[in-house]
Design goal:
alpha+beta, about 40% helix, about 210 residues, 9 strands
Length: about 210
Amino acid sequence: MVYYFTSSVVDPHATIYVGKDKFENEELIKYGWDEDFHADNLSSAHVYLRLKAGQEWDKLPATLVEDCAQLTKANSIEGNKKENVTIIYTPWSNLLKNASMATGQVSFRDHKKTRTTLVPTRLNPTINRLMKTRTVASADGLFAEKEQHLSKLRAKARERAKEVRKEEERLKKERQDEKYKREHAYEDLMKGDDDEGGGKRSNQDGWDDDDFM
């Protein structure tokens, strides 16, 4: 099972989700999003924050990081009993998992791409606020949810590529038009002179042959 929580310390509200145990942790590790933020460092259910578009994992409001850290501590049998617990957090894309690791265990691809936050003590008002928002869903839905998310990203990427091609075609035509104007500038000038009266006059212009005698 996967537990979903809503953090109201930011607007719009944020979604936090937690695996029930180490086995669900495996599903979360496998089907996390690049936009997800992962908090850990204890024998605990892993806590993930679903970032909004444009949010940066290392520039989140301190209150939101604290919500995630409090949930991490509360979901650890060991950590929940301790004071001054340090929580490590990192983007989902920085998680490293291989066959030699125990179930639910992860490491990091780049340790420089991690941050820590200290949880001095459990804040019951924070935990109670989050628990009131908790919903439960099957871990089986994580795969479908990620596929739907990736499908939307691919559609956006295709739309961006289409816009880029359209702009490239516009610039190409603009350059071709400018080149044509440069290459035919002299011809257009001479044609303009002819049109302004460079031709011979005739009786149609109102002249009579006797006028020249």
